[in-house]
Design goal:
The protein contains 12 helices and 14 strands. By secondary structure, it is an alpha/beta fold. The protein has 3 domains: 4-81, Winged helix-like DNA-binding domain superfamily/Winged helix DNA-binding domain (Arc Repressor Mutant, subunit A, Orthogonal Bundle), CATH 1.10.10.10; 90-190 and 310-332, Response regulator (Rossmann fold), CATH 3.40.50; 192-308, Response regulator (Rossmann fold, 3-Layer(aba) Sandwich). The radius of gyration is 23 Å and the shape is globular.
């Protein structure tokens, strides 16, 4: 049997799910003729042990490949390569501004929807324009589609000018739809100003139990400033006292305050401040956290969130890519009430 550890590799630090890394390894092995028709594959147990991954990780990869007709199985023989000729997969360049729990949700749903119809290469530019520029200039011509989450701390104007030079039939913007990019390109996005206004409006009955609302908006932030616009409009429309603060460094926590955090680190600091001040979250103070994640369901008996549907964002982007459409889709925003408000 061939040395599959040279063909199939798993990177523990990659955002790409391990089952998909295994799938891509096998498909790439076929493409490069390292794997041939009727070649035997390792058993699920053997491969999971060799790669040091869970058995169900290998099982899912094999199941997906079998559903696509790429591999087959025979009792007593095991798994084998059953097809080596298939249509050329779309090559997709995916540019994320950072890694986070909700970016993982986007990636997982995007990759799962594409399945074996596309090869995805993911790059994370960490909100850094020079890295974004270097990556895009080097990679843009080698891909059929380019999908970008366009968030930048500095040089946003230059970044948008660069994006505007891309062939529009290749381009899909995800999460944010900035002004200044012309032409018929695809976009699956949030409307930050409108979303936070109507998200907080759904919380109004709870917010009326508090005396002040504070939005923690970090300095030098990649977060859309439309969030600030929507927040101020909501508070003024409802005559609610409010304040925008950059961090919690000098914050003296007082009963009757609701905090809205964007950055995850500020959520942890809020909890620590409340505990140090002997204030009960959900009673003395309120917390609303931007962008839902699994941990917020259980942290402190549940943190109330206002969030877009990131799973839908990934799925809709994949559907648009496969259909070769360049339409605009606004993803709905929702409030999830939990014990922190």
């Amino acid at each position: 049997m061939k040395n599959y550890l040279k063909i199939i590799k798993v990177n523990d630090y990659s955002i790409v799910p391990k089952y998909l890394q295994i799938t891509n390894g096998i498909l790439n092995g076929i493409k490069t003729n390292q794997l041939c028709l009727n070649d035997l594959l390792p058993s699920i147990n053997d491969l999971s042990e060799a790669l040091d991954v869970a058995r169900n990780t290998v099982e899912r990869s094999y199941r997906d490949l079998k559903s696509a007709g790429t591999i087959g199985s025979v009792a007593g023989k095991g798994y084998f390569i059953s097809k080596t000729e298939f249509g050329e997969r779309l090559k997709v360049l995916l540019l994320f501004n950072k890694l986070s729990s909700h970016k993982r949700v986007i990636y997982d749903s995007f990759a799962e929807k594409l399945g074996d119809q596309a090869f995805i290469e993911l790059f994370v530019y960490n909100n850094d324009y020079p890295l974004f520029y270097k990556t895009l200039q080097k990679k843009k011509d080698a891909y059929d589609k380019i999908v970008i989450i366009p968030h930048f701390i500095d040089h946003e104007h230059e970044a948008l000018e660069l994006i505007d030079t891309l062939p529009k039939e290749k381009l899909i913007l995800m999460d944010k739809l900035p002004e200044g990019i012309k032409g018929n390109f695809g976009a699956v996005y949030e409307d930050f100003e409108r979303d936070i206004f109507y998200g907080l409006d759904k919380c109004l009955a709870h917010l009326n139990n508090y005396s002040t609302i504070k939005l923690i908006y970090p300095l030098s932030s990649y977060y859309s400033r439309d969030i600030i616009k929507g927040f101020i409009s909501f508070c003024r429309f409802n005559n609610l006292p409010f304040k925008i603060i950059p961090d919690l460094d000098d914050e003296t926590m007082e009963s009757g305050t609701v905090y809205i955090n964007l950055a995850e680190i500020h959520l942890i600091e809020l909890i620590e401040l409340a505990q140090a001040s002997s204030l009960v979250i959900g009673k003395d103070i309120g917390i609303i956290s931007y962008n839902d994640s699994p941990v917020k369901k259980v942290l402190m008996n549940g943190i109330t969130t206002i969030s877009t549907d990131f799973k839908m964002m990934g799925e809709q982007s994949a559907d648009m890519l496969l259909a070769c459409k360049n339409n605009r889709i606004k993803i709905p925003f929702k409030v999830t009430f939990r014990h922190s408000l």
